[in-house]
Amino acid sequence: MSADQSYRVLFVIPTQVHLLDICGPAHLFYEAKQFDPSINLHFVGLNSQKEEITSAGLFFSRLEALDSFKLSKNDIVFIPGLEAELIFDEKFNQTNQPFFKWLVEQHCNGAKICSVCTGAYLLAQSGLLNDKSCTTHWKYLEDFRNRFPKADLKQDRLFVKTGNIYTSAGVSSGIDLALFVIEEHHGSIFAAKIAKEIVIYLRRTEDDPQLSVFLMYRNHLENRIHKTQDYLAQHLDKKMKIEQLAELVHMSPRNLTRQFKKTTGITIGEYVDKLRVEKAIQLLLDGQKVDAVSLSCGLASSNQLRSLLKKYKGVLPNTLS
To answer: What are the DSSP E strand ranges found in 34-173?
Structure first.
């Protein structure tokens, strides 16, 4: 897109909208507008309402009328997530039929349609996700799959692009999606400026999982295993023996090994490998040299790192595959 070609970004505000779902992407485009005044931001009511309350109790007011916009292929629509009790409410969905019709029309006009978190439910209700790949928040995957069997739901994905439809996993992944769309419109150098402006530590891509390994395998109440996991994550650059870990949590090596596998579903060695792979990916994408990354991950050589990454090739971003 040429720098002087203006386009509109519409942020749809449903009642009980989740604040970060809308404010995260909106702030990115606000920052983008500081570099490129041709970007026009609009906040519209779901069915032309002038005011809406958020799930946090704050109000959006002076919203623009939805039906006053007819979009083109250069324009973008963001649909945020909202309270689950509404997306499961048949009366609420029936009330939104005019919005669904409008959304389908804008899609046919070529506008980019982007959902954040449970905003994917509104896309699915409109029929736009039939026979299309998509994603939503991990907590709603099973329910979404049951309600919308025609959608090709992808799990463990930050966001998914299918044609001019974009769906994201939720909350902070809406920021990643917004940055991805900005890059499509303005290029990678422009997007890097925006990422730096809002201090995003690491730009994630549509290939990345919803949950980091630093957060996975933690859905348990065994404090000694949590302590072991914390220590492993914080000392990846150190050589660790099972005897040292066992002493740290006041268990025998044999008992720690058994309890770790029973509690998390994977072995200590597998867990350390996953931690190393994720840290290595972050450091490599950040531009660090292979030898330095190997040392930071507790590996003796760059060859060991390459062997480890080859073993887990399926989780690598396209840029590292």
So the answer is: 39-45, 52-53, 59-60, 76-79, 112-116, 133-134, 152-153, 159-162, 165-168
The CA distance from 246 to 225, in Å, is 10
Can you list the positions of beta strands (E) in the chain?
7-13, 39-45, 52-53, 59-60, 76-79, 112-116, 133-134, 152-153, 159-162, 165-168
Residue identified by tokens 């982007």 is 114
pLDDT digits (tens, 9 = 90+) for 300-319: 899 999 999 988 876 666 55
90-93: long-range contacts, CB 8 A cutoff, minimum separation 24: 93/125
Length of the chain: 321
Reported as a single tens digit per residue, the pLDDT across 245-267 is 999 999 999 999 999 999 999 99
Cβ–Cβ < 8 Å for 296, 305: no
- Tell me the whole-structure pTM to 2 decimals: 0.66
